[in-house]
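Standup notes
- DV: blocked on the single-chain target, sequence here:
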Amino acid sequence: MKKGHGFNMPFLVLKGVKIKLKGKAGEKITALENTCHGRTKIRDIDLFTSAMKGVRPIKNNMVMLHTKAFPPISLEHIRKEEQEVIDELKTLVAGNTNFDITSTGEYMEGHDRSIDPSLIPKLKAGQVAIQAHIDLHGLIKDEAKLDLESFINDAYSKGYRSLLIIHGRGLKSKGEPVLKNSVVRWLTTGRLSYKILAFCSARPCDGGTGALYVLLKKRAKKARWIKSL
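- DV (later): unblocked, structure below
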């Protein structure tokens, strides 16, 4: 007997014997054998169809954009805008404005003709201590006007003299900077003009041409009434 024949001899009788497995285990092995031998080929279209089973196609492939709805402009708002322009023109034509206004590029400056000339350089250099400030940047025109009037009236009643008004540079405005120019107009015409002594664009550390230093007039002292005996 050759070497090794004694070990392999019991298995020789099993040569050619096929074992059939029952149940799911047998089905899996058979499917695997068929796939390995190339007997069953799964096509890509079959995989795609199986994955998309139950999916319903959309009726329209157009993307609908939801645009922000802006409220309609009322006739009252338009009349207010027109009246504001008319009042400004009347003031300029009548020569009732007491302000000398200078505009160089983005820089703005204006002062009452009765001002002490020595105050202007101090205001430009930021040597006047700021007592209160307001930020109007980002507000719509009507809101900015109401907030500015309330701010200046409150500061004037408290006896403040130096203010900082932040209005932004208006670089995103179409054409001229709307809010910036409006602030200058509000300060030099109408009711606020009687309380303004001077203004100029701020230094870069305080907002540069996107802000104004404003100097208010002194508040009139209340008269003291002496009761007669």
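- Follow-up: The beta strands are 99-104, 107-112, 132-135, 162-166, 196-201, 211-216.
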